[in-house]
Amino acid sequence: MFTGIVEELGEVTAVENLGDAARFRLRGPVVTEGARHGDSIAVNGVCLTVVEHEGDEFTADVMAETLKRSSLGVLAVGSRVNLERPTAVGARLGGHIVQGHVDGTGAVLERTPSEHWEIVKISLPAELARYVVEKGSITVDGISLTVVDAGADHFTVSLIPTTLALTTLGLKKAGDPVNLEVDVVAKYVERLLGDRASRTADRSGEAGA
């Protein structure tokens, strides 16, 4: 489990095409400290497994499904990425519960700078819109953010200077893709309410038979 609090801005140092997968080598001195084979590291919000670790770099394999459902497929040598290690038991939950399982991708639509912050508008896939609410939480490229405004096909977030300086959102331009993970609590609530409605309908049908 992650919290969406990015630990460092890393860099892709190599990309190997494996046909139905890809192998990335990434540099991140903070997240590689004490890293071991099999550890998890979130890369732009995608939970990846450390295959190899040497110095301040690690490699991770990304299967075709992940490349298809996330924006990792557009990464190239030199791309900057948000990196975060899993949260430790007993640590403070600075952001919100983030699984590292991308639900879909959006794109930066526009940026509106202000004196002390910046408003970023991001497109939202129709199937995810019901999970995004004003003042709710959403993960964008692995960053835990608060939704300012939620529309049918977009949402906005307000970024402070620290987020702009220390994450990829300070570098994204209009049209650039971003990974999105909605609040998992909303998905569980939807499933539970759906099951409850289904059971109620079944009982009603039995009673009317």
UniProtKB/TrEMBL annotation:
> Known SUPFAM superfamilies for this protein?
Riboflavin synthase domain-like
The UniProt entry annotates Lumazine-binding repeats at 1-96, 97-193
Superkingdom as given in the UniProt entry: Bacteria
**Pathway assigned in UniProt:** Cofactor biosynthesis; riboflavin biosynthesis; riboflavin from 2-hydroxy-3-oxobutyl phosphate and 5-amino-6-(D-ribitylamino)uracil: step 2/2
Which key words are in the record?
Repeat, Riboflavin biosynthesis, Transferase
The answer to whether the entry has keyword Repeat is yes
The Lumazine-binding domain covers 1-96, 97-193
Catalytic function, reaction form: 2 6,7-dimethyl-8-(1-D-ribityl)lumazine + H(+) = 5-amino-6-(D-ribitylamino)uracil + riboflavin
EC annotation from Swiss-Prot or TrEMBL: 2.5.1.9
Q: Among its keywords, does the record have Cell membrane?
A: no
Q: Name one Pfam family in it.
A: Lum_binding
Q: What NCBIfam families does this protein map onto?
A: PRK09289.1, PRK13020.1, ribE
Reported function: Catalyzes the dismutation of two molecules of 6,7-dimethyl-8-ribityllumazine, resulting in the formation of riboflavin and 5-amino-6-(D-ribitylamino)uracil.
Instruction: Quote the protein name from its UniProt record.
Output: Riboflavin synthase
- What organism is listed for this UniProt entry? Streptomyces similanensis
